[in-house]
Amino acid sequence: MYKIKLIFPYPNYPIARQVPNWLPNWGNFFPVKWGDFQFFINDNTTDYDFLIVFNFLINEEICNCPIENRIFLTAEPSVIQKYSTEFLSQFGHVITCQRDLNHKNKVYFHQGHNWFVGKNYDELINNLLIEKTKPLSIVVSNKQFTDGHKKRFDFVMSLKDHFKSDLDLFGRGINDFEDKWDVLAPYKYSIAIENYVCDDWITEKIYDCYLAHTFPIYYGCPNIEKYFDSNSYELIDIENTNKSIKIIENILSQNNFYEEHLEEIIKAKLHYLNNLNIFPLVCNYIIEKKLSKTHLKTPIRIHPEVVYNKNSKTTFFKIKNKIKNAIKF
Known about the structure:
The chain is α/β, with parallel strands linked by helices. It has two domains: 2-113 and 277-326, no CATH class; 121-275, Rossmann fold (3-Layer(aba) Sandwich). Helix content is 30%, strand content 18%. The longest helix has 20 residues, at 257-276. The protein is globular. The protein starts with a strand and ends with a helix. It holds the Pfam family Glyco_transf_10.
C-alpha cells in the first residue's frame, strides 16, 4: 500500500467524497483509498511515500519523501495565478496548463479539479438513469469585472433573449441555487462556458454536465478532444453569437439527439470519475512514471509560495473565497 499525503487548501470542501465507499460524516478527516493507494488529506502525518499539493501550500510542510516523489498541481491559469520558480523547485513534478511556467519537469495535463454537484463518487457511479424533463440550462455569474466577464455575460443574455423560456438561466445574482445538481440533472442540455481558454484547462464547467448525464454545449479548452470524445459535446464560440445560436437550434430541433448521444455522455462521466478525478489522476501518474517508495533520512521543510512571492497571499485568499462562495454545504 502506497501512502500519499494530499494537501488540498479548501478544508470546507469534502474532496474525500470523490473516492468509493466514502461516508458523509467522514468529511476529510479519515484516510481514503483508491486501489493500492491510501490518501491522507490535510493530515499531520509525516509517514507517507508521496506528497501531492493542489494549488497552494498554506503552511510549511515537514517532508520526508524525496523531491521525485513530490507532485504539484496548479489550479488556475497563469492570468489568475503565477508560481515562482523557487516555490516550484521544491517539487519533482508539476502538472499544469500553464505554458509559461518555469519547471524542468512540467507535464501539460488536466489538473484534477473537483466537481461541484452535490453527490459523492458512489452516488454518481451508481446513478444509471436520470430523468430529463427540461431542455436547456446555463449557469453564469453576473460579475463583470473584466472584459472577458462582460463578453460572457453579454453572450449569455443574447442567448436568453433568443431562446426565451427554452433556456433556463442560473447563477449568483441572477437566479441562485443551492446545489448545481438541481440546475443540471433535469436538463438534456446545458451551455458550459469556461472562465478562461487555453489547452489543457478544463474544469467542472464541462464534467459537471457529464456527472448529471447532461449533454454539454461547450466553449473553452481548444484541445478538449484530448480528454473527451467529440461525440460527447458540441462546440460553440462566444465570439460568434449567431453561429452559436444556429448550432443550439439544430440540437434542440432533433427529437432524438440527446438519446443518440447518451452513451457517449455516460462514457465521459465514467472517464472523468475513474481517470481525471484527482485521486485516480495522481495514482495513474505515479504508476506511469514508475515512482517508488523512498524516504529521506533527514526530513526537510517545504515552504509555501508566500515565502518566495509576497503577492501570492492576496491571490490565495481571492481564490479561496471564490471556491467558498461557489458552493454551500
